[in-house]
């Protein structure tokens, strides 16, 4: 090492030691036990007077006991680290809330007890500020819940004892009763069986205290479907149950020669209307919503970070020397001038010190991330004069006619003939109208409904109200056409409320959907949380006259119809060839669909949700593989929950000085907003697998352009995720086999999209499970 290098390193080491001593003195001042809050001016005076006399107190980086009255009036006593609670301690907020238990880096983590001013308490496990794990909540009205929690929600097995004496013992999901459970009313009558979204739904048994019982199927708390009602004397009634008297039918079987002709099945419904399950109580404020008042000196001013030519923030050697003003000063004096060779040697020496663990904070980190530029509302409104205006009118007329004349679905059990591709209905729409069609201003056309009973049943299965469906597509508001057609040549249209997307179809895609329709119907019926795209209707418009043009289209759910704005969109397949956006950075906004090689995050889900996620992805991929489908993708939308006023994303766990405030109009959803969502039982249902899911996004950096998954940086962001599997109508036909053979000659066969469905499914899952993992 040259003499000049040695001098520079020696000067750097001396300055680092002085910096540490200064921090130690500062911590001595702020680390003293205090019984009253201090103003910033008082803190400044104390620092100036006691610099030389506080050498035997706690130094920065050490864990010690402290008792503090914080600037906003909050009180804390317990273990303290740096400028926040860490270890075991007690925190009392000015509004009367209190937490006693374990802390980790200013977050409630581990076992503890949280109390509300109302008298409500939670005692159990915490994770990152949330009630998470095994715990007991006692409400102000006296009800208790003992069981499992995930992010403030009852999730898993638990027992809830209500204030009126009712008890539920069973499974919970996202704060509501789900799957198997037993509910006992205070008169000792009870139900045991299946639940769905907090309601009795599925197969189960209700037993009254007088010995009568009902065994069968339920929907929304009442018998629905096949079931048997038994009296204590052995007589019973078997039949199909429904709240609609016209659908109700069955037979009565007496125990002996007696006949109970006066009994009416409606009596069961009237009786059950008295047995209401208690609703959940709203928690006014959640533990994760409570802000901590962390001590910060108002004298601290952070210097702006220097940006290196490779786009990274320099927090390494340059930053250390900036602090001691070696490379330069405002006056331009005292510059230690070294050449590039010396600098390279010095960088190598610093890297060695880092590798040996001597220095841990000199690695460069990525540039702070910003919220992407907000895109305009997608699509061009189809108004009079638009080239597709007449097609839109035809489409709206056809759907209004098809949905309006259809009878309600009685049963979801469909005959095999309903799925026959030949099961279609043609309707003629002349301009003057007919007995069944209204007059209109468009040219004459024919309308075709494919498998109308199947899609009507699908809409009921997906809980789509027919009136709302027609209003969204056929209301006064026009459809919007997306600015450019997709890669397949299809055009896309959005309804004005963004709930539905309409896609024009090629004949080959129509054949694929009709071929797999029965399997699709059975799959979405068996797996309520399936991630595959939802289809609501398949139709065709045939223009009459000399053109004789046929336009086939499918109506689908819009995945990104959510109360959260989507900041980033990714289309992920697990292949690398051509899987990057072709837009320059200046043109990318929140509407831009990015691809595999543009992805710079790993998403981490809570354990319970991640287990559901991998189970469902496996089931969905098995279904698509059996149907010989490939080239599908996972469409992912990301909403960043916290950002500064300037639009800079705030990593999770980042602490801001006291008094730092953020503009309410900033384009973000704060953690408090999400917690408020979780605290309201009426809105819990909006969180589901693939929809509005809270997660953490860890930023990654790629070492090479062809690397699919980058290296984690340890920088996390709180996000809300929306995702689903789309483009499921491409089978492995002869064209795809030829594409695979041709591209395999030029490129790595594993990097291209067109591969055998079995290989595609395995590669897709391998990639998805790398970029969406469990948060451990």
| Shape category | globular
Averaged pLDDT, please? 76
Class from helix and strand fractions: alpha+beta
Low-confidence stretches: 22-60, 296-338, 358-365, 655-670
Q: Biggest sheet: strands, sense, closure?
A: 17 strands, antiparallel
Q: What's the alpha carbon Rg, rounded to whole Å?
A: 32 Å
User: Helix count?
Assistant: 13
Calculate the terminal CA-CA distance, rounded to whole Å.
44 Å
SS elements, strand count: 35
**Range of strand content:** 25-35%
Q: Tell me the helix content.
A: 10-25%
Question: Can you describe what's shown?
Answer:
With 776 residues, this protein is of the alpha+beta class. Helices cover 23% and strands 29% of the residues. It contains 13 helices and 35 strands. The strands form four sheets. The protein has a 17-stranded antiparallel beta sheet, with no helix packed on it. Strands 21-24-25-26-28-27-23-22 form an eight-stranded antiparallel beta sheet. Helix 10 (607-626) runs antiparallel to helix 13 (757-771). It is globular and about 90 Å long. Mean pLDDT is 76; it is low at 22-60, 296-338, 358-365 and 655-670.
């Amino acid at each position: 090492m040259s003499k000049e290098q040695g001098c520079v390193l020696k000067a750097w080491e001396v300055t680092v030691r002085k910096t540490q001593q200064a921090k130690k003195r500062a911590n001595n001042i702020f680390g003293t036990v205090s019984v009253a809050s201090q103003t910033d001016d008082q803190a400044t005076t104390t620092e100036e007077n006691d610099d030389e006399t506080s050498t035997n107190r706690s130094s920065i980086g050490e864990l010690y006991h402290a008792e503090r009255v914080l600037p906003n009036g909050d009180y804390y006593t317990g273990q303290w680290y740096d400028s926040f609670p860490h270890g075991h301690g007690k925190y009392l907020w000015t509004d009367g809330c209190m937490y006693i238990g374990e802390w980790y880096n200013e977050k409630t983590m581990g076992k503890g007890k949280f109390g509300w001013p109302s008298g409500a308490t939670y005692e159990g496990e915490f994770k990152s500020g949330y009630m998470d794990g095994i715990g007991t909540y006692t409400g102000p009205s006296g009800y208790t819940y003992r069981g499992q929690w995930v992010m403030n929600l009852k999730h898993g097995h638990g027992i809830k004892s209500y204030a009126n004496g009712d008890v539920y013992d069973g499974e919970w999901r996202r704060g509501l009763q789900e799957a198997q459970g037993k509910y006992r009313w205070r008169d000792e009558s009870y139900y045991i069986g299946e639940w769905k979204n907090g309601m009795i739904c599925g197969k189960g048994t209700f037993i009254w205290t007088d010995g009568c019982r009902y065994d069968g199927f339920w929907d929304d708390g009442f018998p629905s479907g096949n079931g048997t009602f038994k009296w204590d004397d052995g007589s019973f009634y078997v039949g199909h149950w429904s709240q609609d008297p016209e659908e109700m039918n069955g037979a009565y079987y007496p125990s002996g020669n007696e006949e109970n002709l006066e009994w009416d099945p409606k009596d069961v419904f009237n009786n059950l209307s008295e047995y209401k399950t208690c609703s959940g109580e709203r928690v006014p404020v959640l533990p994760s919503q409570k802000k901590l008042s962390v001590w910060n000196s108002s004298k601290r001013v952070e210097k702006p970070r220097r940006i290196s030519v490779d786009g990274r923030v320099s927090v390494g050697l340059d930053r250390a020397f900036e602090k001691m003003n070696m490379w330069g000063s405002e006056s331009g004096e005292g510059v230690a001038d070294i050449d590039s060779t010396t600098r390279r040697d010095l960088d190598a020496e610093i890297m060695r010190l880092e590798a040996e663990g001597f220095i841990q904070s000199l690695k460069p980190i990525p540039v702070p991330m910003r919220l992407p530029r907000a895109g305009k509302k997608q699509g061009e409104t189809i108004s009079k004069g638009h080239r597709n205006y007449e097609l839109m009118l035809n489409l709206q007329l056809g759907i209004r006619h098809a949905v309006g004349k259809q009878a309600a679905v009685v049963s979801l059990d469909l005959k095999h003939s309903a799925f026959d591709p030949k099961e279609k209905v043609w309707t003629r729409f002349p301009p003057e109208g007919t007995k069944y069609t209204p007059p209109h201003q468009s040219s004459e056309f024919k309308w075709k409904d494919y498998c109308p009973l199947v899609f009507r049943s699908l809409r009921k299965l997906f809980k789509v109200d027919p009136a709302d469906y027609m209003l969204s597509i056929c209301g006064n508001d026009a459809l919007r056409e997306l600015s450019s057609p997709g890669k397949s040549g299809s055009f896309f249209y959005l309804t004005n409320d963004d709930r539905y997307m309409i896609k024009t179809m090629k004949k080959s895609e129509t054949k694929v959907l009709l071929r797999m329709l029965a399997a699709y119907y059975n799959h979405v019926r068996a797996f309520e949380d399936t991630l595959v795209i939802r289809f609501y209707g398949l139709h065709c418009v045939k223009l009459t006259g000399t053109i004789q043009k046929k336009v086939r289209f499918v109506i689908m759910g819009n995945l990104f119809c959510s109360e959260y704005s989507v900041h980033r969109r990714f289309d992920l397949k697990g292949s690398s060839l051509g899987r990057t956006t072709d837009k320059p950075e200046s043109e990318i906004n929140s509407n831009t669909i990015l691809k595999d090689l543009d992805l710079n995050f790993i998403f981490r889900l809570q354990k319970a949700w991640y287990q559901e996620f991998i189970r469902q992805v496996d089931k969905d991929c098995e279904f698509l593989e059996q149907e010989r489908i490939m080239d599908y993708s996972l469409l992912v939308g990301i909403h960043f929950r916290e950002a500064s006023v300037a639009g800079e994303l705030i990593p999770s766990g980042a602490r801001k000085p006291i008094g730092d405030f953020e503009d309410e109009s900033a384009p973000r959803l704060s953690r408090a907003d999400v917690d408020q969502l979780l605290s309201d039982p009426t809105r819990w249902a909006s969180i589901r697998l693939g929809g509005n899911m809270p997660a953490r996004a860890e930023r990654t950096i790629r070492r090479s352009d062809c690397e699919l998954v980058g290296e984690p940086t340890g920088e996390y962001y709180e996000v809300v995720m929306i995702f689903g599997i789309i483009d499921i109508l491409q089978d492995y036909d002869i064209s795809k086999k030829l594409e695979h053979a041709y591209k395999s000659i030029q490129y790595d066969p594993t990097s291209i999209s067109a591969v055998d469905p079995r290989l595609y499914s395995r590669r897709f899952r391998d990639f998805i499970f790398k970029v969406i993992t469990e948060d451990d």
